[in-house]
Design a protein that fits this description.
Layout (H helix, E strand, L loop, with lengths): L1 E2 L1 H11 L10 H8 L2 E2 L3 H9 L9 H8 L3 E4 L5 E4 L1 H12 L7 H7 L6 H11 L5 E2 H9 L8 H6 L2 H9 L3 E7 L2 E6 L12 H16 L4 H12 L3 H9 L5 E6 L2 E6 L3 H6 L6 E4 L4 H4 L14 H5 L3 E5 L2 E9 L2 E6 L7 H15 L10
Parallel strand pairs: 1-8
Antiparallel strand pairs: 2-4, 3-4, 5-7, 6-7, 8-9, 10-11, 11-12, 12-13
Helix pairs in contact: 5-11, 11-13
Length: 365
């Protein structure tokens, strides 16, 4: 099948609930995207709400509280919002690298591989009665003489150490307590069913990526699962191969790409989009394919987007960056790019409804 990049991006905008905007819940949005960066909180909330026709402030927090979403360390070790179903796959892939067994980890933390099973038991026991702040969790861990040497780690900042427990499904972030981060047992969430088997996790992760970020290439999949979660190239290649005839090749303006076969008809029916969206910094629209994808981010503007600028997307392509100056929306259009006055006014109106106050749109050059 042959298609064009404007068509492909229009199909992807639909999958990202950006054109048209979706009608589902916060969990539906996060499940569709696979994962959403959870930091900073305001960007995470906006990333979800711009994809919903109707939403209220605090919806993400309520989804975390009822367990339809979890917050944990995932891609590139950063914090992400995920559904329990996707977390079962993504965390399994991240855990499979067993980074805590690297010589550097053993030396730095003074923990041998066989120290981890009892340490994990200590951590889970500490959280058995509910969420704990990081200092409180540290106190519980170092109270065990075997792990007293970790006191300095908890004092200095144990975030890297805690990732190993998150990846193995022992804990996830809990609700903040007086402005302090807490952690809670992941298996306290009734929707959590445990980590998937590695190959089942790989299959689910590959399919989830193709559903949201196709048409895609082996390079993009390796970026998402390899660089993002530490999956080995051979494993990723095997998981793709296992799709067999469920996978179809697509020619996108002369570039070979892949898509799930049952999505071909929807792609063929897609018409180029002219929708304008104001997306927050670190939005999955650019992080999913990567800021190096020139079809989404102009190469000469990659640096500013990678550093976390909020982006103006027109027809799926980043046309500029935006910011708020009080109640004024400021847009820095990239050279030779702009948008229709009506489209920008409409999107600023949507943003105003989300943030709950009137906003003034900028002039369109």
């Amino acid at each position: 099948m042959r298609t064009t990049w404007p068509q492909a991006l229009a199909w992807r905008l639909r999958r990202h609930l950006l054109d048209p905007v979706g009608t589902g819940s916060s969990a539906d949005v996060v499940g569709t995207l696979g994962a959403v960066p959870a930091h900073p909180d305001d960007a995470a909330e906006l990333a979800v709400r711009v994809r919903r026709q109707e939403s209220d402030g605090g919806d993400v927090a309520r989804a975390l509280a009822d367990g339809t979403l979890i917050k944990s360390f995932a891609f590139r070790g950063a914090t992400h919002l995920m559904t329990p179903e996707h977390a079962a796959a993504f965390l399994a892939l991240r855990a499979s690298s067993r980074m805590w067994e690297l010589p550097s980890w053993q030396t730095f933390y003074g923990l041998a591989p066989d120290d981890w099973p009892p340490l994990r038991h200590v951590v889970r026991d500490a959280l058995a009665d509910g969420p704990l702040t990081v200092p409180a969790l540290g106190e519980a861990v170092v109270a065990d003489p075997r792990y007293r040497h970790l006191a300095q780690t908890f004092a200095d900042g144990p975030w890297t150490l805690l990732k190993a427990f998150a990846w193995q499904g022992d804990l996830c972030f809990g609700p903040d307590e007086d402005g302090q981060t807490t952690f809670q047992r992941l298996d306290d969430n009734p929707r959590w069913t445990g980590l998937l088997d590695l190959d089942a996790a790989g299959a689910r992760a590959v399919e989830a990526y193709l559903r949201a970020y196709g048409p895609t290439t082996a390079r993009h999949l390796q970026y998402w699962l390899g660089e993002g979660l530490g999956s080995g190239r051979r494993n990723v290649q095997r998981w793709v191969a296992d799709l067999g005839d469920r996978l179809a090749e697509v020619d996108v303006d002369g570039e070979p790409a892949a898509l799930l076969r049952d999505d071909l008809d929807e792609l063929a029916a897609a018409s180029p989009s002219h929708s304008l969206r104001l997306l927050p910094r670190y939005d999955q629209w650019v992080l999913g394919p990567g800021t190096a994808d020139a079809h989404v981010v102009p190469p000469e503007r990659r640096a500013v987007v990678s550093r976390g600028a909020a982006v103006v997307v027109v027809g799926g392509v980043v046309h500029g960056t935006w910011s708020l100056d009080g109640d004024d929306v400021r847009v820095d259009w990239f050279s030779g790019r702009s948008a229709a006055r009506e489209a920008l006014d409409d999107e600023v109106g949507r943003l105003a409804a989300i943030v709950g106050r009137p906003l003034r749109p900028p002039e369109v050059p």
